[in-house]
From TrEMBL:
It comes from the Bacteria. Residues 13-247 form the ABC transporter domain. GO terms for molecular function: ABC-type amino acid transporter activity; ATP binding; ATP hydrolysis activity. This is Amino acid ABC transporter ATP-binding protein. Transmembrane segments: none annotated. The keyword Transport applies.
Length: 251
């Protein structure tokens, strides 16, 4: 089906000529693409190429200068009511887990559903326990973040994002801050999510994961999408020498 014929439900996030500069430095240069429902996109590219800025623009953590981003057909703007709804639909997981250090794991996961969704403590806790079970941390619910390993903390961060029942999950280098032996447990949780049909946009340097889990790999180069293709094609027959060199460095 042509992209143009897709409904907002199918073409869940659409970026159209998105530009963003910091001072005189243009970081996103007319980025146009769409992220389909149920699709797993892995974004790769050199440090500073604009990957995080695109994810942050989708979530309005960083307003873009021109062009449009739509989520389910609704433009991302500063309208507070719309933004709150969109942030419920879009879960985000960061490199630094950003857990609330003074709260238990259970409270980290159940807080937003109580505050924003209005769930009772019992409802929110029951749902949080299901999610913690899903990420293998049901026995750690009453611990504090500092009592957990980095891999466990990142799994809590994923459970916390899922607690809002998002339609899409954004991951910005979720394993880059982890000790090597903890990378796999986080990738395993992400693979499960992908297998369950979650729409995901993942910035990562984990090439093996990209090959295995991505429906599409996107290569950012100096603020532009320089190539996008299914992983077999992307890795098997790189579109140009810069991509070939990048893959070589990462593998
Ligand atoms: P990537 O995630 O691909 O490494 P980023 O999107 O984080 O790249 O950053 C792209 C460029 O924008 C970098 O040169 C970075 O230094 C710059 N940049 C990002 N955020 C800011 C900011 N808040 N203020 C100024 N420059 C920024
Ligand atoms: Mg980044």
């Amino acid at each position: 089906m042509s992209e143009l014929n897709k409904t907002p439900e199918q073409c869940y996030i659409v970026a159209d000529r998105v530009c963003k500069s910091f001072g005189t430095h243009q970081v996103l240069k007319e980025v146009s693409t769409s992220f389909n429902t149920g699709e797993v996109t892995v974004i790769i590219g050199a440090s500073g190429s604009g990957k995080s800025t695109l994810l942050r623009a989708i979530n309005r953590l960083e307003p873009h200068d021109s062009g449009t981003i739509t989520i389910g057909g609704v433009p991302v703007t500063d309208n507070e009511a719309t933004l709150q709804k969109q942030r419920c639909e879009v879960g985000m997981v960061f490199q630094q887990f950003n857990l609330f250090g003074n709260m238990t794991v259970l409270d980290n996961v159940s807080l937003a559903p109580r505050r924003i969704r209005g769930l009772s403590r019992e409802q929110a806790n029951a749902r949080a326990m299901l999610l913690l079970t899903r990420v293998g941390l049901q026995d750690h619910a009453h611990k504090y973040p500092w009592q957990l390993s980095g891999g466990q903390q990142q799994r809590v961060a994923i459970a916390r994002a899922l607690a809002m029942e998002p339609k899409v999950m954004l991951f910005d280098e979720p394993t880059s801050a982890l000790d090597p032996e903890m990378v796999q447990e986080v990738l395993d949780v992400m693979r499960e999510l992908a297998n369950g049909g979650m729409t995901m946009i993942i910035v990562t340097h984990e090439m093996g994961f990209a090959r295995e889990v991505a429906d599409r790999v996107m290569f950012f180069d100096q603020g532009r999408i320089a190539a996008e293709a299914p992983p077999a094609e992307f890795f098997g027959n790189p579109a140009n020498e810069r991509i070939r060199a990048f893959i070589g460095r990462m593998s």
